[in-house]
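Supplementary Methods, section 5.1.

A reviewer requested that the exact input to the structure prediction be made available. We therefore reproduce it here, unchanged from the version used in the analyses.
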Amino acid sequence: MTGMVEPLRVACIGMGWWSDVLADAMKRSDKLKIVACYTRSAEKRDKFAAKYRCRPAEKPRKAATATAAVPAMTYVIVSLLIGLQFYARSR
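The structure derived from this sequence is encoded token-by-token as follows.
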């Protein structure tokens, strides 16, 4: 075994300017890989999926569980990030 660790697979939920900031940072890291995304707007969802080479999902739960390889904890992390987004916008 080479000691290589697989990147944490992440589902991004909610597309906006902040999601691109986070996705750009994840893209630069070898520790995270965006595998799915969701937002209510199909146009934004498809644009994000194309830009970050991930799978667009029609429902948030499907984004978080897009593949069996996405750990359940990822959904909690994404939810926390969404909460931080709302908090930052409210200040």
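Helices lie at 17-28, 42-52, 60-64, 72-90. These observations are discussed further in the main text.
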